């Protein structure tokens, strides 16, 4: 089953908020977690701040700037961000912020 169909099923059964969270989670696990850590709490290549410490606006701006070539970084990270849509960036930011909220609750 492709990811779009999967999201439609998730969204129809659990609501829109869960759909963006599921999309963000999937994208994060596939493209970000190897450098930023499973819980977005690691410094990627000892250069970036842990993502959970950033505001939603900082995450969105950082991802969009990397995607658009305004910020250059590690080639692997650059490639991972190059194809992101605005919606995917928003989904990622929402998921990363949910990790921050979960961490604070513990």
From TrEMBL:
Pfam families (UniProt xref): Cytochrom_C (PF00034)
GO terms assigned for molecular function: electron transfer activity; heme binding; metal ion binding
PROSITE patterns linked to this entry: CYTC
Protein name: Cytochrome c553
Keyword Heme: yes
Region forming the signal peptide: 1-19
Keyword terms: Heme, Iron, Metal-binding, Signal
Domain Cytochrome c: 19-100
Gene3D superfamilies: Cytochrome c-like domain
Origin species: Biostraticola tofi
């Amino acid at each position: 089953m492709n990811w779009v169909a999967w999201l439609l099923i998730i969204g129809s059964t659990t609501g829109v908020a869960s759909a963006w969270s599921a999309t963000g989670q999937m994208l994060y696990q596939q493209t970000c977690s190897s450098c930023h850590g499973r819980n977005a709490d690691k410094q990627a290549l000892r250069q970036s701040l842990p993502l959970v410490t950033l505001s939603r606006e900082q995450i969105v701006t950082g991802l969009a700037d990397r995607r658009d070539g305004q910020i250059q970084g590690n080639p692997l990270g650059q490639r991972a961000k190059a194809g992101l849509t605005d919606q995917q960036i928003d989904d990622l930011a929402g998921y990363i912020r949910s990790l921050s909220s979960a961490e604070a609750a513990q």
